[in-house]
């Protein structure tokens, strides 16, 4: 059978639910893996100021601070998308407005990231290039 | 043996599509019952609590104030002089580990198919989680800055 136009050059773009499911998973795994390391680095405080201050000095590196910004973004996304999941799970009727809910969720996430990027980004630029914004 | 005619869906009856399929559900399908239903429910309840504990922690420690640049031994000594923050941090530790490791279990269920491997990977995360829970609990509740005089508050 000859190939139709729809057989070639098309890209399956998925539904918002598929993308948010994937993002929820990726951010969740990222946060728990960070948590494993974070429990250990915080526990070092029990070994006194010398040990702990050496560990926290890692956070003066701008690359680490960039990763930290990613962590905050992951936690915020996972939290906001988690609220959407709970709304749909506990009130199944809301699934009819799934697209609207997805847009609202994305908008809340992006809006919450604006001040976060501004606040943390200023510190990162200061550490990396000594830019005082 | 079933014939073709027996298994064919009559045209006047649409195929049974599970509730929430076709992109109308963002989370995991609610399990029918038993242990899986309890973990499903736990994820949602701990999620609501973590919404305050984890998001609060991140905003206070990583975004607000001077972020992590102010965090050192003296900072922790001052912060943990209050039982409120010790309790907050311990509750966050416990719930985040349980929520996260159960999340990993669900992910492992999807991607690690051989039974022995699945058991091994899950066990690894359970053991790591348990060790970190004990370590974190001991440090949160036994931390005493007066053991290092002159450095703390």
What does this structure look like?
The complex is a heterodimer of chains A (133) and B (153). With 133 residues, chain A is mostly helical. Chain A has four helices and no strands. In chain A, helix 1 packs across helix 3 and helix 3 packs antiparallel against helix 4. Chain A starts with 15 loop residues before the first helix and ends with a helix. The mean pLDDT of chain A is 88. Helix content of chain B is 64%, strand content 0%. Chain B has 153 residues and is an all-alpha fold. The chains are: A mainly alpha (133), B mainly alpha (153).
Distance between termini of chain A?
A: 62 Å
- Structural class call of chain B reads mainly alpha
Number of helices of chain A: 4
**End-to-end gap of chain B:** 80 Å
Radius of gyration of chain A: 21 Å
Count of helical regions of chain B: 5
- The proportion of residues forming helix of chain A, as a percent range, comes to over 70%
Low-confidence stretches of chain B: 1-9, 20-24
Oligomeric nature of the chains: heterodimer
Content-based structural category of chain A: mainly alpha
Instruction: Report mean pLDDT of chain B, rounded to a whole number.
Output: 83
Indicate the overall shape of chain A: elongated
Q: Could you estimate the helical fraction of the residues of chain B in percent?
A: 55-70%
For this entry, give a set of tags.
heterodimer, A: 133 residues, 0% strand, B: 153 residues, mainly alpha
Write the layout of secondary structure elements.
The complex is a heterodimer of chains A (133) and B (153).
Chain A (H helix, E strand, L loop, with lengths): L15 H28 L5 H8 L5 H29 L7 H32 L4
Helix pairs in contact in A: 1-3, 3-4
Chain B lengths: L3 H4 L26 H30 L9 H7 L3 H29 L3 H28 L11
In short:
By secondary structure, chain A is mostly helical. Helix content of chain A is about 75%, strand content about 0%.
């Amino acid at each position: 059978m000859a190939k139709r136009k729809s057989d070639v050059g098309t890209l399956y773009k998925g539904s918002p639910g598929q993308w948010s499911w994937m993002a929820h998973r990726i951010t969740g795994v990222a946060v728990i893996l960070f948590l494993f390391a974070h429990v250990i680095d915080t526990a070092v405080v029990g070994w006194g100021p010398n040990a702990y201050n050496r560990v926290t000095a890692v956070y003066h590196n701008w690359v680490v601070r960039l990763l930290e910004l990613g962590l905050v973004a992951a936690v915020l996304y996972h939290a906001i998308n988690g609220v959407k999941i709970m709304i749909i799970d506990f009130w199944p009727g809301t699934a009819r407005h799934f697209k609207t809910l997805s847009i609202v969720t994305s908008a809340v996430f992006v809006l919450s990231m604006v001040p976060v990027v501004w606040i943390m980004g200023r510190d990162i630029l200061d550490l990396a290039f000594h830019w005082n914004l | 043996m079933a014939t073709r005619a027996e298994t064919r869906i009559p045209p006047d009856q649409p195929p049974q599509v599970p509730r929430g399929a076709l992109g109308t559900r963002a989370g995991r399908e609610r399990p029918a019952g038993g242990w899986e239903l309890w973990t499903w429910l736990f994820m949602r309840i701990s999620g609501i609590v973590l919404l305050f504990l984890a998001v609060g922690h991140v905003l206070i420690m990583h975004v607000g104030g001077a972020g992590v640049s102010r965090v050192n031994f003296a900072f922790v000594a001052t912060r943990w002089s209050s039982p409120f923050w010790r309790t907050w941090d311990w509750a966050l530790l416990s719930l985040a580990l349980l929520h996260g490791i159960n999340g990993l279990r669900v992910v492992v269920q999807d991607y690690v198919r051989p039974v022995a491997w699945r058991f091994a990977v899950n066990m690894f995360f359970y053991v790591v989680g348990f060790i970190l829970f004990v370590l974190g609990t001991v440090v949160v509740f036994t931390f005493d800055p007066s053991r290092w005089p002159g450095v703390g508050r």
